Amino acid sequence: MNQSKHSIPLQGIAAAPGLAYGPVKKITTEIQRDVPRSQENNPVEQQARMDTAVRAARKEISNIKSRISVQTNSNDAQIFDAHLSFLNDPVLIKKVSNMIGQGWNAEAAWIDTIDYFEKQLKKLNDPLLQARAMDIVDVGKRVLDHLMDQSDSLIISPEQPVVIAADDLSPSSTATLDKDAVLAFCLAGGSATSHASILAKALGIPAVVGLGEQFNRISENDQILINGSTGNVVVNPTPEQVETYHREKDERHQVELTDRSNANLPAVTRDGRQVLVVANIGSAEDAANARRLGADGVGLLRTEFLYLNHDHMPDEESQVLVYREIADIMGNLPLVVRTMDIGGDKAVPYLGTKDEANPFLGWRAIRMIDERPDILLSQFRSLLRGFANSQLHIMLPMVSSLDELEKALEIYRTARSQLLSEKALMAEEVKFGIMVEVPATAILARQFARHVDFFSIGTNDLTQYTLAVDRTNQRVAHLSSYFHPAVLQLIKMAIDAAHQEGKWVGLCGEMAGDPLAIPLLLGLGLDEFSMTPNSIPQAKRLIRSFDLAQSQEIAATALQYAHTAEVKEYLNGQKH
Ligand code: PEP
Ligand code: MG
């Protein structure tokens, strides 16, 4: 540490929890605008260079996207769909080819086109479209780096662990951060819900954003302390501050170690009620991680990755292979697989998704069943074969009417009878359930419960649809909370209805892993908590620290409040 410098406290926005201390590396994610320009080139050659660079960028983005969907909630990966769609935009492609046709070199044609689109978007009086200008520059930089042979410049993986300081970080730069080399990051720009913050949280990298002017007080190679839980930053901290940091970090680490060493024990409340703590996964890698972290099973296997990573419908054999790999890892533990939830913010054109004015209210998930029953049939067949020896549970997303459930069950029976006549090996004791994530389904839960074996409550969407708050729109993000009293009532309705029909209920939205929500959900009678694998050890500890009677009181009190803030304040007071 440089003792001669003064300690400078800064206050930013807490974006991703955790503590870090280390040397600053300042980076720029600016696109190079002064590229070499010439106008007497061979258009065929230049077009070939252009195509190669775009292909390479496309591949890179797809890789980042699948890496992110493996490591995080799959919706975070959808940021990269916008990037891919820019690269497939016919207007953009035509503009570049026209300039190349006039003899311009690929670099000049590309940067002029990016410039043009950036300006067009910035001109529009819509903050969301203006934000897309940043995305287009991000994609533009990636392609340009390939054209100019600088393709490593976006990949930040320094040998010495550092704290990254930048004006802003694009989603793709954030996604390429190497967790072993980047201790934390702090940004001049950004908000708690900007893409960089969401990704940092999902990747487990502490982050503070929104430092504004204060950012100028940070210099390359300064030592810096970051508290991503409070938004506090200290540049060149005093020895005492560093000591406090080490102590806090050690304490947190000890708690984590103890949690992990107890993670394989069951989650039983002090008065003997056992619940399952299971994992949300999106790949075989996740499944292995979930087992290491003590998951009692899988509560949500998101299967979208099977479709998002392709440009054509995956055939049955390739689906079966992926499922078998996951089945082998999970062994005899219960496993809930959700049929694909494409649509909404996950566009897959070869499946027939189109641009829609309100995609979250549109052709999504189970709603594809009338036009494309073949997709579901192929998925049911693959699931039954791939998980032939597993404790398989199949779950339908976005169900809003009993008709959808009945149609899906009909297709499911067809899949079974086809496999039977083909004498294929298939799973026998399969349980069938639905996600409760549309308010209509929570309201009609009693009827649904008669036709299924279980429910899993999807609070991410249930919150979005109950409160009419688009879950991808930062501007209304402050209105979104699963602690909203209306959402809590619907959760209670779903749990009570299922129990009255003798069925079990899980919850697989982000809420299940939130320490504040755990006693409340226990008290409401939830049977299964499904969460990102990293949260499992802590959730199990919290469950063990409560008793059921006490949680029931907490739930009853929490449900009496009329304001979200009151619910949260009350739950904060009940924390262990
Ligand atoms: C949910 O909506 O809560 C859920 C778990 O599903 P997803 O986040 O994949 O929409
Ligand atoms: Mg959902």
Number of contiguous helices: 21
Can you list the strand order of the major beta sheet? 1-8-7-3-4-5-6-2
Radius of gyration (CA) equals 25 Å
Note the overall shape.
Answer: globular
Helix content: 40-55%
What are the low-pLDDT stretches, counting only 5+ consecutive residues below 50? none
Largest sheet: 8 strands, mixed
Quaternary structure of the protein: single chain
Task: Find the count of extended strands (DSSP E, 2+ residues).
Answer: 17
| Proportion of strand residues | 5-15%
If you average the pLDDT, what whole number results? 90
The structural class is: alpha/beta
Attached small molecules: phosphoenolpyruvate, magnesium ion
End-to-end span in angstroms? 36 Å
Descriptive account of the structure:
It is globular and about 75 Å long. The chain has 21 helices and 17 strands. Helices cover 45% and strands 14% of the residues. The chain has helices at 43-71, 79-87, 90-101, 106-123, 127-147, 171-175, 195-203, 239-261, 284-292, 305-308, 316-330, 373-386, 402-421, 439-443, 445-449, 459-467, 485-500, 518-524, 536-545, 548-558, 564-573; strands at 8-11, 13-16, 19-26, 162-166, 182-187, 207-209, 223-227, 232-235, 267-268, 274-281, 298-302, 334-338, 391-396, 431-436, 454-457, 504-507, 528-531. It has 576 residues and is of the alpha/beta class. Helix 1 packs across helix 5, helix 9 (284-292) runs parallel beside helix 11 and helix 11 crosses helix 12 (373-386). Strand 4, helix 6 and strand 5 form a beta-alpha-beta unit. Magnesium ion binds at residues 397, 437, 458, 460-461. Residues 397, 437, 458, 460-461 line the site of magnesium ion.
